[in-house]
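Entry:
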Amino acid sequence: MTVGFYDKKVPKHIGKQKGEMLKMKKSLITMLVALVLVAAVGVGATLAYLSDKTGTVKNTFTIGKVDIDLTEYVDGEESAEGFDYTRVLPGARLSKNPVATVLKGSEDCYLFVKVVNPNTTITIESIAAGWTLLSDGVYYREVSYSATADQSFDVFNYVNVANTIDETATFEDIEITAYAVQKAGFADAAAAWTEASKVVPAPTQG
């Protein structure tokens, strides 16, 4: 018995059509993917939030200050250390003018002067106007901030010598010390003086 094989060949034009259909299908898929990507990009753009950003605000802090000075004048002559008096006569009225100054740029403050006069035969004529007696020998005033000008205040102007002295008399130095402390944070001048009196006294006049 003879066995025969059947060989069926696909016509060339049919194979060619299948190839073209396959290429078209791939192109269509590629186009759809591209459209999906474009659509995705478009949707993403429409979903972007409106936003903005400001610059950084910097807060700068600087320390305030309270600066003072003390100068003395005698008959118009100035000294930062005080004066020596010679040839003092009984009953004399001597020029002695200590001036306390709060320097410009100082914060609101309490300004104090402490006057120590251990003499019984030399007396201070009078404390200048504007000072308030706080305690024995301690006077104060309130001074406001000034950005442009120093603020100076006479403490007193004259001292008087007793007419009972003679050539054997001796005298002790009269000491004037200026202090200042910020006004903020203190209930009153007494509280401020408690703090101010703790510092090393400077400057001092004799």
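The helical segments are 12-46, 189-196.
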